[in-house]
């Protein structure tokens, strides 16, 4: 499974070394500004014990070829719909004591688009509700600003 971890600016190399020292059979894929992407097949909760990282995410996929025009929005929805969120849901469930019953969407993009993040959320929410058998909860994610 692939993961992305976020760290404080300037601590990327320290966090990478912590990952290599604390996780067995890990492969670093990319280290860049505040971000490390790596492959790891061990217990996900081991990642959460590494103190030099701020946050950890499951890497579900990277989308390429998404245009900026409103007509490209269905292409985005199709590509997201094809990603394997069920495996991610199963991994997250192993970290929770209660069953996962809802999800939310955080959306951002680089560059100008002729559609908004709100439109992205609106289009993806029903697709993912059906695919994940979970209820969509619209949250503002102000803690990510």
How is this structure best described in words?
- With 145 residues, the chain is of the alpha+beta class.
- The protein has helices at residues 12-22, 44-47, 73-81, 85-95, 117-132; strands spanning 2-6, 26-32, 35-40, 55-58, 102-103, 135-136.
- Helix content is 35%, strand content 18%.
- Helix 3 runs parallel beside helix 5.
- The longest helix has 16 residues, at 117-132.
- The radius of gyration is 17 Å and the shape is globular.
- The model has no long low-confidence stretch (mean pLDDT 91).
Please render the helix and strand layout as text.
Layout: E1 2-6, H1 12-22, E2 26-32, E3 35-40, H2 44-47, E4 55-58, H3 73-81, H4 85-95, E5 102-103, H5 117-132, E6 135-136
Parallel strand pairs: 5-6
Antiparallel strand pairs: 1-3, 1-4, 2-3
Helix pairs in contact: 3-5
Estimated radius of gyration: 17 Å
Largest sheet report:
4 strands, antiparallel
User: What level of helicity do the residues show?
Assistant: 25-40%
What is the oligomer described by this structure?
Answer: single chain
- How many individual β-strands? 6
Question: How do the strands line up in the largest sheet?
Answer: 2-3-1-4
What is the mean predicted local confidence, pLDDT? Answer: 91
Shape: globular
Detail the poorly predicted runs.
none
Task: Quickly give the structural class.
Answer: alpha+beta
List the main descriptive attributes of the protein structure presented here.
145 residues, alpha+beta, two-stranded parallel sheet, 5 helices
């Amino acid at each position: 499974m692939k993961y992305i971890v976020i760290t404080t600016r300037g601590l990327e190399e320290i966090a990478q070394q912590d990952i290599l020292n604390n996780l067995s059979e890990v492969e670093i894929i990319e280290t860049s500004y505040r971000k490390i992407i790596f492959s790891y097949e061990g217990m996900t909760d081991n990642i959460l014990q590494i103190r030099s990282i701020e946050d950890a995410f499951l890497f579900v996929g990277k989308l390429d070829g998404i245009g900026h025009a409103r007509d490209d929005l269905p292409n985005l929805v199709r590509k997201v719909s094809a990603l394997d969120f069920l495996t991610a849901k199963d991994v997250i469930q192993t970290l929770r004591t209660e069953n996962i019953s809802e999800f939310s969407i955080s959306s951002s993009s680089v560059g100008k688009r002729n559609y908004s993040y709100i439109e992205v959320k609106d289009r993806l929410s029903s697709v993912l509700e059906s695919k994940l058998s979970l209820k969509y909860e619209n949250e503002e994610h102000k803690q990510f600003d």
